Amino acid sequence: MFDLIAADLRRFEERLPEELQSNVAFIEAIGEDLVAAGGKRLRPSLAFLTGKLLGADEEATMQVALAVELLHSASLLHDDLIDDADTRRGSEAAFKRYGNVVSVMSGDFMLARVLGLLARTGSPHFTHLMSETAAAICEGEVLQFQVASLTDYSYANYHRVIEGKTAALLAAACEGVALLAGAPEQEVVALRDYALAYGRAFQMQDDYLDLLGSADRLGKPVGGDLREGKATYPVLVLILEHNLAEARAILERRAGRPGDVERMVALILEHGAHHLARERIAEEAESALRSLEVFSASPALNALRSLAESETLRVG
């Protein structure tokens, strides 16, 4: 599905280092690490596919792709420090290598570069969208900690967390291109709805695999979210639908005892919480597909549909 935008992604990888240039060696090094690490580039890919779908201006689409990826990368630098993460994409986390101050300020440097990109677009609508997206990311992360601190577990809170953490920025990638392309309101809304639903499915699948996936496929131990006190969907099913005190206790002590992660997995399988989680992921993917029905058939539309459909099949 990415063959359609392979050339766009190559140009993106050429442009990204230009946006990260600095005459301060540590900032430059963190930027180089970001470029080298690569990652899925999901957000730029969504921007480029949307650009193809709408026949949008290539430079405007590139500016959206760069802006959303830089905002995402800045948030990751801050998140790693907050989560005390040892690694990022298989390499030592920036704050472990350079210290807290350098990592935080490098994240802020990326945010400054985002502001420059927004200025270049000259679009108050896109600028407002990115402002709201940045606020949503912050709110999602803080809400996640608030829920863990207050043990305020609910599906509504989980929904708000995954929209803020993941779906909002995916939506900005699609909606931003549509805004700069001057797309009709119906298409702007459809693309936003698509990306929000796809983003929820994507994050729910990540959360599912964090507990029920393979450590070899994931490249990290399972149960990371549980150890951070994060109430993901399968765990919420045990607490809210089955009122399992044991599941709540494991979550609230952050799987601090030997065998806690394995016991939570056993409870999920015993009570069928994994089936309900998979059903919700499928429902979100279907919602994403329905949002695309306003568009005529095209290779870009097929690629966007395939992305949503793939979340019901992803195993790592």
Could you tell me the radius of gyration in angstroms?
A: 20 Å
Helix content percent band: over 70%
Summed up, the helix count is 16
Strand residue percentage:
under 5%
Question: Could you spell the SSE succession in H and E letters?
Answer: HHHHEEHHHHHHHHHHHH
Low-confidence parts, pLDDT < 50 over ≥5 residues? none
Kindly state the number of beta strands: 2
Largest sheet: spatial strand order:
1-2
Distance between the termini: 18 Å
Largest sheet: 2 strands, antiparallel
CATH topology: the name is Farnesyl Diphosphate Synthase
Going by CATH, the homologous superfamily would be: Farnesyl Diphosphate Synthase
Give a description of the structure:
- The chain has a two-stranded antiparallel sheet.
- It is mainly alpha-helical.
- The protein is globular, with a radius of gyration of 20 Å.
- Helix content is 76%, strand content 1%.
- Strand 1 and strand 2 (91-92) form a beta hairpin.
Secondary structure layout plus pairing:
Blueprint: H1 6-19, H2 25-37, H3 42-54, H4 58-83, E1 87-88, E2 91-92, H5 94-98, H6 100-121, H7 124-150, H8 155-180, H9 185-212, H10 215-218, H11 224-227, H12 233-241, H13 245-252, H14 260-270, H15 273-291, H16 299-310
